[in-house]
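Let us practice reading a record.
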Amino acid sequence: MEVKASTLSGNSKVAVVTGGNKGIGLEICRQLASNGVTRGTRERGVEAVNALKTQGLSNVVFHQLEVGDRSSAARLAGFIRQKFGKLDILVNNAGIVGTVTEVSDPESFQRKFLSGEDLKQELNSIENLTKERLDDLSELFLKDFRNGQLEPHGWPAEGVSPAAYTVSKALANAYSRIIAKEHATLCR
């Protein structure tokens, strides 16, 4: 999903929202477009763009993007460079999870997907969490990953969702909460 905007100061802003064709991504696009930012999406995205345009948000532009395909990303970059000359905002909302598995035992799924009580407590403790600690946790995860020590050290198990995806998503969410806390007046 890609967006271009005119701000109050008259400066034009261009944003790309991956995964912007539904859910949170679509709402991010709606908010950006209603605040003067122009953006676009994909096949479902064509429908999403048309729906936003019917809401009076004409500054929405469609462009195909497969986040797991380097050539698709290169085409989007070329399109942005040619049409807008720059990119101001990137909202990386799309995810690549790997194989989809049927969950027949939700309790077992929860244990595999959310293991490591200490890790969960640390990431949820926004009062004590810092950017530096997230960097430390990231380095520790990478070390344990390389050494095959994920499960013994309380990291999520490989299985339903790849551990690297799960941990990177958890760290990104924790970082977002830290930023929101640091800039509380922007979030109200």
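A brief commentary: The first helix runs from residue 23 to 34.
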